[in-house]
TrEMBL record:
GO molecular function: oxidoreductase activity
Protein's organism: Nelumbo nucifera
Keyword hit for Oxidoreductase: yes
Biological processes per GO annotation: aldehyde metabolic process
Name by which UniProt lists this protein: Uncharacterized protein
Gene3D superfamilies assigned to the protein according to its UniProt record, in alphabetical order: Aldehyde Dehydrogenase, Chain A, domain 1
Transmembrane segments annotated in the record for this chain: none
């Protein structure tokens, strides 16, 4: 049974796409992996304020703690 058939909506569609990408062998390349990690770092940098605010709203963590524990690249 396909994940999309489990009634997961958009999540099921995303999981199917991720599985297809993995099974295609595309993820084996070191350059692809490095590019994905760089994209993640760019996302964190570009959305730092929104991430810190969301963490504060969700769990009440002060922005300095949230940056240190959740966002900083030194972890």
């Amino acid at each position: 049974m396909a994940l999309a058939e489990l009634g997961l909506g958009p999540l099921g569609d995303s999981l199917e796409e991720l599985r297809w990408t993995f099974e295609s062998g595309k993820t084996r390349s070191i350059s692809w992996r490095k590019a994905q990690l760089q994209a993640l770092l760019n996302f964190l940098r570009d959305n730092e304020e929104q991430i810190l605010e969301a963490i504060h709203e969700d769990v009440g963590k002060h922005r300095v703690e949230a940056f240190r524990d959740e966002v900083s690249r030194s972890n």
